[in-house]
Design goal:
With 192 residues, the protein is of the alpha+beta class. It has five helices and seven strands, in the order ββααβββαββαα. It has a seven-stranded antiparallel β-sheet with strand order 2-1-6-7-5-4-3, with helices on both faces.
């Protein structure tokens, strides 16, 4: 474990997603350490950066914008995309188009644009999958870190439409019956 302060921002919607309170809410938990999963994501990003000399998330954004196959929606600053290898059906990531490692660097205008993409993404998910339980998690650089050239903050939204069972727990691999290209198409075509 790395002993630097960090924060975990998340929302659990629905009992199957771990929500213990009936009213809608998000949570922010400050930790005196960087959790192992965060360390792994940071290390993987740094490995890619050292190999390619560029951010893996920036590469992903460029590829997704070029192909448009898994793009759900976008505005001037943000992109909502069904990632290439989702862990759950209809998983969506929201990323800033420009490179920032920390969510704390958002301007007031950027917050407004993020809120628009986030709101429309959740509306489209609800239209397509109903009020299914979901989790969303903010992935951001550890607290008080300088700008990291190899890491890109983002939100991950994971609907709980399938269960983790023996194979998933035993292997760390996820079985997802809905290709991300199909999920993105269904979400794009949803009438709001």
């Amino acid at each position: 474990m790395c002993f630097r302060p960090t924060r975990v921002v998340f929302k659990n919607f629905g009992r199957a997603a771990g929500a213990s309170l009936e009213h809608t809410h998000s949570q922010l938990i400050g930790l005196p350490i960087v959790p192992e999963l965060v360390q792994e994501e940071l290390a993987g990003s740094k490995f890619y950066y050292n190999y390619k000399e560029r951010c893996v998330f920036c590469d992903m954004i460029r590829q997704e914008l070029q192909s448009q196959v898994r793009v759900l929606l976008e505005n001037e600053e943000f992109l909502a995309v069904c990632p290439f290898a989702p862990r759950s059906p209809f998983e969506v990531w929201i990323l800033p188009k420009n490179h920032y490692s920390s969510y704390a660097d958002l301007t007031k205008d950027s917050c407004r644009l993020l809120a628009q993409v986030f709101q429309e993404t959740l509306q489209r998910l609800e239209k397509v999958i109903g009020k299914a339980p979901y989790n969303f998690i903010l992935h951001t650089a550890p607290f008080r870190e300088p700008e990291l050239t190899y890491y890109h903050w983002h939100f991950e939204i994971m609907p709980k439409l399938t269960l983790m069972a023996g194979f998933e727990w035993g292997s760390g691999f996820f079985i997802n019956p809905t290709p991300p290209e199909d999920a993105a198409q269904y979400l794009r075509e949803a009438q709001l």
